[in-house]
């Protein structure tokens, strides 16, 4: 069985018993053992994965496979390390949580398990989700499998790299300002940031809770749809989830679908300000979309220039609040409290945060402090509202908004790490979807010079995942780009 | 107005994060550039409603007890019997 098999194929073979879950899981673990030293996609490998695979095989031999109700039977999945997994260390790539073992599963994780998925391990990320390159991890950099001198993107870099390096079949990430789409674009895999409120955030360790979502990642669009069918829907443990159930997103994808009469809006400013390599490939992708029946128009986004400052203002403000809980008392890194007063104790414990995290917490503190709240945070929330309204009005006439996922190709490790602002600007295309709470898919459209993947981003209005998946599936069937390196 | 060493020192205190003196100016410099960039938001003089999410956040669930976590105390490292040790407040 090829290592690069898709989840929906693997499920068929596992259910039929043409392959055992244990055998395939063992092969993935072997791959990680041999190869991950080069990539550093994983922080923790799950040593119970083989046992779990064996119990799946046992259930199949008892007749479970025939029901076809477990949609991810025997599929190895990598989980970003800010998503809680019971009994399996969850660090958020931070020294603050380097020994933290959750006593519960995130809702999305329990749904995956219910459908027979096998948790292979926890993947590397930027600390607490704060970054776009997976260079800000306390556990080392994740290298791009296509060119190990280059960044894998972030903050879900480990998840994306694990897919491209054949170290998992599916992956979960989280997306606050582009954190599944950016690494997907840089690693030539597919990713979906769903509508805010469609997937439960219960168990996702908070960074910026009005912006972030669990993100889905895979090597094929149908796999993405399968993941969505399994994980979507209301959760009583997360009151920000919309009160809707899941549906079948994966059975009716059609490779010969046509989209005649539908229109795509392209944000002109973004394409004009992208790297020439990116805009060239993006324009080529637009031809493919036209070939599928779409009409393409260029539009202006009047409030585009406020997207990044608004995003970072809100994210940092929320981060300063959400990370206040790390005080070394109930969980996480700690020191002996005997004889210490709380100010000194808290400050010493919290000095273990990485630089970027400290920077964002302090900026967030400044933004929310008296006298500055109106200037930054209130203005940012207004800008957010204006941007969302503008995007929704575009959706009145257009089915989809398209942009390159990233304005530049993957760059060398270390290139932007000393200049925070230079790093923030690469999020321009992706923050729009988080600000508005709308769904977005990134898919590979080219691998420049064989080593620098380029991605296309398509965004839809709230709860329009089905359309995005149909478009992405048709595009993939027309213009397929490799999703993994050679084994 | 550039962010001063004293202001960053105060922010570090408010956020309860201990930072060595030698690094405070480095942080001040970086943070200053970022805040400068955020000043772009000053241009917005529109009277817009702030953002609200799709979901109606004003409804609360019934106050029913649900048993959820087993062994939750095991994750605290500084313990004495069934208590968690904490630093003094006063």
Explain how this protein is built:
The complex is a heterodimer of chains A (487) and B (90). Chain A is an alpha/beta fold and 487 residues long. Chain A is 39% helix and 14% strand. Chain A has helices at 7-15, 21-39, 49-61, 64-67, 107-114, 157-164, 181-187, 221-231, 268-272, 276-291, 307-322, 342-349, 355-368, 374-397, 420-424, 428-436, 465-478; strands at 42-45, 76-80, 118-123, 143-144, 147-151, 170-175, 190-193, 213-218, 263-267, 295-299, 400-404, 440-448, 452-459. Chain A has an 11-stranded mixed beta sheet, with helices on both faces. Chain A is globular, with a radius of gyration of 21 Å. In chain A, 60% of the residues are buried. Chain B has 90 residues and is mostly helical. Chain B is built from 2 helices and 2 strands. In chain B, α1 (5-14) crosses α2. The radius of gyration of chain B is 22 Å and the shape is flat. Chain B starts with a helix and ends in a 6-residue tail after the last strand. Classes of the chains: A alpha/beta (487), B mainly alpha (90).
- N-to-C SSE series of chain A? HHEHHEHEEEHEHEEHEHHEHHHHEHHEEH
Oligomeric state, counting identical vs distinct chains: heterodimer
**Sequence of strands across the biggest β-sheet of chain A:** 1-3-2-6-8-7-12-13-11-9-10
What value does the average pLDDT of chain B take?
87
Largest sheet composition of chain A:
11 strands, mixed
Rg of chain B (C-alpha, Å): 22 Å
**How many helical elements of chain A?**
17
Fraction of residues of chain A in helices? 25-40%
* Structural shape of chain B: flat
* Relative helix content of chain B: 25-40%
CATH class categorisation of one domain in chain A? Alpha Beta
Q: What would you call the shape of chain A?
A: globular
Instruction: Work out the radius of gyration of chain A.
Output: 21 Å
Sheet/helix structural class of chain B: mainly alpha
Q: Biggest interface, which chains?
A: A-B, 70 and 51 residues
Uncertain runs of chain B are none
Mean pLDDT of chain A: 96
* CATH topology category name of one domain in chain A: Amidase signature (AS) enzymes
